[in-house]
Amino acid sequence: MTSATGIYIDGTWHDVAEHRENINPSDHSDVIGLFGRAERSAVDDAVDAASRAFPAWWRTSPQRRADLLEAVAAGITTQADDLAHLLAREEGKTLPEAKGEVMRAAHIFRFFSGEALRVVGERQASTRDGVTVNLVREPLGVVGVIAPWNFPIAIPAWKTAPALAYGNTVVLKPAELVPASAVALARIIHEAGFPPGVFNLVTGSGSVIGDAISSHPGIAAVTFTGSEPVGRRVAATAVARLAEVQLEMGGKNPLIVLADADLDIAVECAVNGAFFSTGQRCTASSRLIIEDSIHDRFVDATLARLAQLHVGNALEDATDIGPVVDERQLDTDLHYLGIARETVGSEVHGGEVVERATRGNFLTPALITGARNDDIVSREEVFGPVASVIRVADYDEAVTVANDTEFGLVAGICTTSLRASEDFQSRSDTGMVMVNLPTAGVDPHVAFGGRKGSSFGPREQGAHARDFFTQTKTAYVRP
Ligand code: NAP
Ligand code: MG
User: Fold this and answer.
1) pTM of the predicted model as reported, rounded to 2 decimal places
2) How far apart are CA 36 and CA 410, in angstroms?
């Protein structure tokens, strides 16, 4: 009998009537647990608790807030191996990838523990004699957090930690596919000793709980990560009631390989960026833009490297690439591969569904050669182990193609030319640029985010998170 997990409101776990099975994508016979599908009214309860907790939390000394966040970082670190196992089991990334994500969550809590103590204001002279102007940063109130499935602990962490550090209270809704890691995080937050109501977790579907968070008048700000269509909807709902909103959405991230690149570095960047974590990263390199004279060598070396990678059960040591997260996402990946196979001029290498000892969603990495930038597969986010190879004549065409997309999260370039590296950092129409590095894999202590259809609102992470999670107040004083 699998035990059922409820929702966490006002410092207490509450049962809910309906549940959903959380299934291991590497092994469909492995049910991780039953997780609550709460009703809309649970969001009302969570917002009530968070609103009641807010005034005291705001006035809590920053040292106390820092200590509590540090205790969460320590709790995550102590349990890192168990958390990584749980994460790999529910989401399907490999154990080393899962461990990396868990440690990132710990580092984020530690970083924002320090940030809690660094909320500085400004004081300056007024233009009027005898008057001073004080600018302070204040929290927003109750923050709603809506998270996707592909980073089950890191994304809840990188939204929750700054929200709490700056004195806000939180209602978190994780994705229904991956509630277990969020529940584990909630338990660690509980054990750290936060006052009741400061952090609340409501599990359930996006159309019910996500929508309730976007539309609740008691939620001052909504921070969302997920797909572009859902993000647009969340923003429209939140902005209609003049709530603050921050969106991190999809990508169609280019990796340019110039003729002067170090081929080994280029192949490693492409394979890591496009296929590790099963390609299920918003920062994945899904368009490989290759200069003509290195194209054939790059394709041959990449296919040779892909042939060495083992797709399999995320919990097994031999596995390099875990399963696709669920059958729906697998259908999406296969749908796009079908389109690519029918596209005249393009050829799909790999992209086969394979069987392993356990029943899971195993798909080999797919490299689409002969692709063009206006092919459907080069324009829409697949969110799987699928990358298009687009041949270009020279650097200028590469930059034009790289920027010719609805998205603008991250772009990479592999080159040994200092000139090209400098020029591309300036011409790339993205929020992030990588030189001789995979497009995926960012640091937790610096600003993260994109442009165009990839992001909306202030940056996440690092000290820039303050721009979203605080509001300024300007006071004029005549003593
Ligand atoms: P999604 O389907 O858009 O879901 C994201 C979250 O929104 C989930 O918690 C979902 O709930 C919820 N949701 C669904 N419908 C909603 C509604 N009507 N109102 C409010 N919330 C709603 O995205 P996903 O499939 O989980 O994640 C993959 C996407 O995330 C990709 O597009 C990827 O690029 C993007 N992503 C972006 C970043 C970034 O930082 N830019 C990072 C990681 C992922 P349920 O799923 O539980 O129903
Ligand atoms: Mg989804």
Assistant:
1) 0.98
2) 35
